[in-house]
Design goal:
It is a single chain. The chain is mainly alpha-helical. Among the domains are: 108 residues, no CATH class; 29 residues; 28 residues, no CATH class. The protein is built from nine helices and seven strands. A three-stranded antiparallel β-sheet has the order 3-5-4, with no helix packed on it. It has a two-stranded antiparallel sheet with strand order 1-2. The protein has a two-stranded antiparallel ribbon with strand order 6-7. A hairpin with a 6-residue loop joins strand 6 and strand 7. The longest helix is centred in the middle third of the chain and has 32 residues.
Length: 237
Amino acid sequence: MGGYIKFDKDLHDDPRLLNVAAKLRANLDVTCTGQPWGDAETIDLIYNALLGGMSLLWTYGDIHILTGDILPIPYTVLPKIMRLPLWIIDLVPREWIRDMGDGTVTLPMYCNKNNVTPRDKRKAKQVAMREKWREKKSRQRSKKRKGDSKGDMPGDIARDMPGDTREYLVPGTGTLSPIPGPVPKTATATNGASPAPAPHAAATAPRKSFDEEFRQRFGYTPDRASAMRSKPDRWKG
């Protein structure tokens, strides 16, 4: 898992870790190519090992820590996480690691200091978000099923002009169908028979010529309308 953790720059010379390194120096003899190391080199080596072990523990805690800064692992598992012997981990300050004696370990003030959300709270939030998403999808599917059963069309594609040739996707069929036009007004029947639908005004009105329609709409003369018709590219905006 990728990501990063916060690491205090002051830890490069933290006196608490320096004291631990000094205590360990009294019990360790480090040699290199047969030559013993001095106190400064040995302390630096131990100090870097402690910093590396704490970084591994903090990385593990960033993923698995629970509410109350609790790690759900026994204290004896820490050597596998920190890559350090248990007797060295025992020397780490208690304000960083505490054995609770009930199979858990705490990292005091870890979540507050590093602005980390505990794993159990993250999981509860994710569950709530998934439930909210499922409810939304369920409402959408229910609404769609109701629309399919009634044969409803989307209201934004209603055809209101006789020349409209748009089509819509018929719900549940995957086929296209012309959008039905407006219902024509019917005349009142006097003999009890079904009245015949009245013809649409646009179907009975005489078709105007281009010049007449252009002059009526824009107030231009026939000569200018004819020029625009003969050279349409010239008048494009």
